[in-house]
Amino acid sequence: MKHDIPGDAAWSVPVRAGRAITLTALAENANASMLIIGSDRLDRLNIPDTLKSQMTARIHAGLVLMSDRGLALATVTASTLDWHDCLTGSIPSPLLLLELAKHGLSEADLHGSINFFTKVGIDADARLAFVPGHATVGASVTLRAEQDLLVFISTAPHVLATTPAGGVGVQIGAAEAGGPAGLRPEALRALELVR
Amino acid sequence: MSALDQIVEPGAGALLTVPAGGRLRIVDLHGNQAVDTLFYDAHDIDNRYSAFDTIRAQQAVYLTTGSRLMSTRGDELGIISDDTCGRHDTVGGACSQESNVIRYGGHTRHQHACRQTFLTLGAHAGIGQRQLTHNVNFFMNVPVTPSGELKFDDGLSAPGRYVEVTASRDLLVLISNCPQINNPCNGWNPTPVQLLGWW
Ligand SMILES: [Zn+2]
Q1: Which member of B102, B132, B144 has the closest CB to residue A189?
Q2: Inter-chain contact B134–A112, Cβ cutoff 8 Å?
Q3: What sign has the CA pseudo-torsion A171, A89, B145, A54?
Q4: Model-wide pTM > 0.90
Q5: Which of A46, A83, B51, B146 is 20 to 30 A from A34 in CA distance terms?
Q6: pLDDT, tens digit, for every residue of A73-107?
């Protein structure tokens, strides 16, 4: 399945366990803000738990994305970028709220999101600055679904960006077996609980 | 004369209504004690604290005096109006039995955790699993680095240090005094805190 989301749009798509979803930047200023909800439509991506379990402040390949209830939602199996922002959130667009509504969800289901293709740099005092031009056309990231997921993607520009929104390509297909190497024991425990 | 003067033991919590303009002070009586805190518009709990909107609004990760506590709708719920600690976290989230298992192993499954307190007290205000969001950890030190690393570190707080929030609208404040014993967030020894309020 392939679909290109234009800039300033929103989409929701199911990704079954064992499938992979690949996002590709179609423009230099692409941003894909993603919310992930687990198979029970309640258990959500929990950014703080994902970060503190894996001692990171950014999303990159070799991480397991974890839910509120400590379950693996997805594994970041590949990424051409070593930094996707997950500290600066996103303002929910009316289109994103409509996508939530289609599934009986609402703003009560909003939670921390990942801004794929966006980097907001951190200085020594933990002050933040948007990094223009972080993603180039063709940059991509692949997630393997570890349970049946509902994925919400907004292509509204990042709030700190000064350029218009770019589009994002989405491809969903069978996940490659194995990998990635180097998962931390915490990530393996989160995976064990859904297998 | 304060409207509120309450000791909260570790593993316990509080559900408070703070009116617009009211000042809520949390005192770290013994030092290095994480106080997990959530804020909601008292008249519409869907308009709730948003950690990452708060970080983006100030373009800085740590919270201190002047930090505006933002909601999912972009409203200012409150502002940190005084702070003798100097740095508070809002990236690390709350401990839960489930995240304890992930981080420390299955033997921690039945230890008390902040999420248990949030769910217990929140139920009185219609705050359930869906309404729980990423919280503030007052007095907790979670450094992030320019290379994108994050860790839990010894606290910067000390006995008697306090932080004060002034409500920008009528607020529900849900507090868990963290019982975590598996990392340094409570100095390996959770201790009581004091809540003081003026309104
Ligand atoms: Zn806790």
Answers
A1: B102
A2: yes
A3: negative
A4: yes
A5: B146
A6: 999 999 999 999 999 999 999 999 999 999 999 99
